TrEMBL record:
This is GNAT family N-acetyltransferase. InterPro entries: Acyl_CoA_acyltransferase, GNAT_dom, Ribosomal_N-acetyltransferase. Pfam families: Acetyltransf_3. GO terms for cellular component: cytoplasm. One of its GO terms (molecular function) is protein-N-terminal-alanine acetyltransferase activity. Residues 30-188 form the N-acetyltransferase domain. It comes from the Bacteria. The keyword Cytoplasm does not apply. Keywords: Transferase.
């Protein structure tokens, strides 16, 4: 049986387990389950990856994140812990959406997160709980100094999630056909709030 480790940083009452396999992070009603490479490939194709999804299949953003991680695995740049996770209800293991990192922390100690929820899971605080839990774990890792996220300007719900998790909007990124609001959360802020 995996030996739970209490995380005293970032997520009050959080427990981390890893038994030579994917990481599991739990805090109260939410559990984040790291997706193993075989699960990533399945979720990337819109399949269940062995999970029971609240709306029958992973949401599109979760599949997109899994595709990013499949590429990282194939390129040899994926690092365990720094990939995609399923957001699940602790009580019954039902998957509500996905959350994860775009890559491992860069040389400056910055790491970007992304997340989404199935339609049926929205509005219940699940994303906020998941962002707090994942960022709490990340901030407790050596060398992590800054957490980043971005949202589309029209995604007010995601902007509220980031604000409740302590992120601050720091600017706007404009591309050829898109615009993003940029958010940051210093790792020290997460560590001191736990």
């Amino acid at each position: 049986m995996p030996r739970p480790r209490r995380s005293g940083r970032g997520a009050v009452g959080a427990v981390t387990t890893r038994d030579a396999g994917p990481q599991v992070l739990t805090a109260g009603r939410v559990t984040l389950r790291e997706l193993a490479p075989t699960q990533l490939a399945q979720v990337a194709d819109g399949q269940s990856g062995g999970l029971v999804w609240i709306d029958g299949a992973p949401p599109e953003g979760t599949s997109t994140g899994a595709r990013m991680m499949v590429k990282a695995v194939l390129l040899g740049t994926h690092r365990p812990g720094w990939g995609s996770y399923a957001i699940t209800r602790t009580e019954d293991g039902v998957a509500l959406g996905g959350i994860g990192f775009h890559a491992a922390p860069d040389a400056d100690g910055a790491v970007e997160i992304g997340y989404d929820l199935s339609v049926s899971a929205r509005g219940g605080g699940w994303a906020t709980d998941a962002v707090r839990l994942l960022c709490g774990w990340a901030a407790g890792q050596p060398g992590v100094r800054l957490l980043r996220a971005k949202t589309e300007p029209g995604n007010a719900a995601s902007q509220r999630v980031l604000a409740r998790a302590g992120f601050r909007q720091i600017g706007v990124e404009c591309g050829a056909d898109e615009e993003w609001f940029l958010y940051e959360l210093p790792g020290a802020t997460v560590r001191s709030s736990g």
